User: What shape does this take?
Amino acid sequence: MTKKTERGLCELYAEDPERADYLVFGRIAGADRRGFLKGAGLAAMGAAVGATIPFSANMPAGLIPAALAQTGDGGTIEGKDGLTVLNDRPVNAETPAHLLDDDITPNNRHFIRNNGQMPETHDPAGWSMKIDGEVGEELELSIDDLRNNFEVVSYPLCIECGGNGRSAFNPPARGNQWTVGAVGNSQWTGVRLADVLKAAGVKDSAVYTGHYGADPHLSGDPEKDSLSRGLPMDKAMDPYTLIAFEQNGGPINPFNGAPLRVVAPGYPGSASQKWLKRIWVRDQVHDGAKMGGMSYRVPAYPVAPGTDVPTDDMVIMGPMPIKSLITNPVDGLELPAGTSSIDIRGHAWVGEGAVAEVEVSNDFGKTWMRADLQAAPNPYAWQRWTASVPLPGRGYYEIWSRATDDQGRQQPFAVSWNPRGYLNNTYHRISLTVAA
Ligand SMILES: Nc1nc2c(c(=O)[nH]1)N[C@H]1C(S)=C(S)[C@@H](COP(=O)(O)O)O[C@H]1N2
Ligand SMILES: [Mo]
Assistant: This one.
C-alpha cells in the first residue's frame, strides 16, 4: 500500500537491513556505513538520534540506532523539542497541540514536512536564488542582495500543511498520518516576493510561479525534484508572501528551510518552498513535481468516502480553511476533585479573510460558549482566544473548539473526505477528567 519511501525506519530495517541502510544513509553519504559514515549521512543519523555520534565509525552496517529502535516513534530530532516523528525518511514530525501554545512558534517547535532528503548545506554565505521565465530581466540574488536591495519586513505568519488532520480520514488516506500539529506560526523576516518579481519585471504573460529547492530527491536521482510547487500570480504578489531568511529573529531552523525559503501563508504549506534556489515565472500553471495527479489536489466536487476519483476531476488546493486549536490544557489532563471550571486557550486562523468567532463546548457540542478572540497582529497570523469553561461535577469531559470566518464558513464536525486526506478542518477536541 504505502510506498517504500514513505515507510518508517523500523519497518525498513526489519525487512532488509542492508538495503535499508543503503536507502537511509548510503545515498546521502555517498558511501555505505562500513566505517564510512560521514558528512551529510552522519548529520542525518545524528539528527535522528538527537546527538552527535563520537564512535560513528564503529557502527556496523544495518544497526538501527538504539535511540530509534527503543522508542519506535523515530526518536527525537536535533534542534527540535517534543515533536512527534511520523516518518524518518523523509523527515516528518508534528508538534503536539499543547506545545503550540506560544503566540509565536519557536524554531524548536515548528513542525517539519520534508518530501526529500535534507540539502547538504544551510550556509547563507554563497547561497543564491534565481528568478527566470516570464520576466524582463533574469536575476541571480544572494541573501545580501535580497536584504540590501529590497524592503525587509517581518510578520508572524501561519504555515499549515495541506495534509494536517489526515489521520482522521476513514477510509484512511495514504501519506503522513498528521493529527493536528502540522501547523506553526513563527515570526518570518524577509522580503516580499512581489517586490522581487517586480524588480525582475514580470511580463503580462506570467500566470504562475514555479519554486525549486536544494533538497535532493529521496532516490538520489539528480534529475528528479523532491517537490516543486508554485503560486497563482495574485497570491505570489500578495504583500504577505515572502522570501524569508530569518525565523524568529535568527537563522531559520535547518529543517524549516535554512537559509532561504518562501513563506506563502494561507496557502497549503507545500507552496512555501524551503531551501529556495529558483523561482521560475511560468506562462501556464506550474507543472513541477507534485503539482499534478493526486498530489495536493482535491476533487472538484464533494465525494462519498472511499470514492475512486479520476485524476482529471482533481483540482489544485487554494487557501486553507478556517481552523482552531486548543493549546492549553494538554489533552487528557486529570483535574483534582472539586474543580468546577477551567481556563481554556488556543489559536484560530484562516487561509483567506479573517477569523470572526471562536466557540467552545463542554457538552459534546450541544451548547456553545463564545470565546474571547484577540485581534490578529496582521493577516495570516493565528489569533489567540481564551474561554472559561464550567465543569459541573466529576467525570470525563471533552472540550471542543470551533471557529467561524468572516464569510460565515464554520469548522465542521465531520471530515469532508477526499482521496489524499487534505484540508481536514474539523473541530479540535481534547479530553479532561475531574477526579471523584
Ligand atoms: N524544498 C522543499 N520545500 C518544501 C517541502 C519540501 O519537501 N521541499 N515541503 C513543503 C510542505 S508539503 C510543507 S507543509 C512545508 C512545511 O514547512 P516546514 O517543514 O518548515 O514546517 O514546506 C514545504 N516546502
Ligand atoms: Mo505539506
Observations:
- Residues 9-64 form one domain.
